[in-house]
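Homework help board

Subject: predicted structure for assignment chain

Our instructor gave us this sequence and asked us to write out the predicted structure in token form, then describe one feature. I got the tokens but I'm not sure how to describe them. Can anyone check?
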Amino acid sequence: MNTPEEPQSLLICLKAARANLMPGLIIQGLMLGLVLAYYRFEPVRQTLNLLALQKQQWGYGFTVLISVFAGALLPEVLKICFFQKGSIRLENFREFAFGMIFWAILGCSVDTLYRFQGAWFGSTPSFAVLAKKVAVDQFIYNPIYAAPVTVWAYEWKNSHYTLTGISGWFTPRYYRVKVLPTLIATWGVWFPVVTIIYSLPPLLQIPLFGLALSFWVLLVTYINAKKKKSL
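My token output:
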């Protein structure tokens, strides 16, 4: 039996997917071009291999740095430039502090997922291996961990770090109304992107994840700035 919020949830999912369609296609095109360039052009391969070397040397430290830069620092810098006319506010430091912790943790969880997937399925970019990795990533890791944790974290931040109503976060209704739209939007953008990422050598997967996240932040900030100017 359908409950009243189910049609609304579906509508939110469709709107989220539609809003992310063009940015997602742009990011997917950029990532695909970068991967093709890696396999076809020596200068690009050498440049990306330098990133792979840094990842090998720094391990999770590299993951934290690139995740914090792409997910926390870059958004605040762009917000200051596009929306605040260069004015730095206290809220920027608060947002950065939250983003730094959140993206450091999420980036390390992604790194761990990539490591385990490599151990489970191998590193050969064959169709069978890619299919298994993408399936685990998008249909197990995302629905069970990444999407709910992201929604919970931002819900907690937006409620001024109180735990009021936390019991409602673990209900089917909450998942359907709050988490599912985020998951649908994530699938629309990241399903092809993670396929591209998994086609690269293991040490390049986190650097490419960071680049994809950076592209996403840049595009969303640019689109939001254009919308604001048109109002």
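Reply (TA_rk): Your tokens look well-formed. For the description, you could write something like this. Residues 107 and 130 are 20 Å apart (CA to CA). That's the kind of observation they're looking for.
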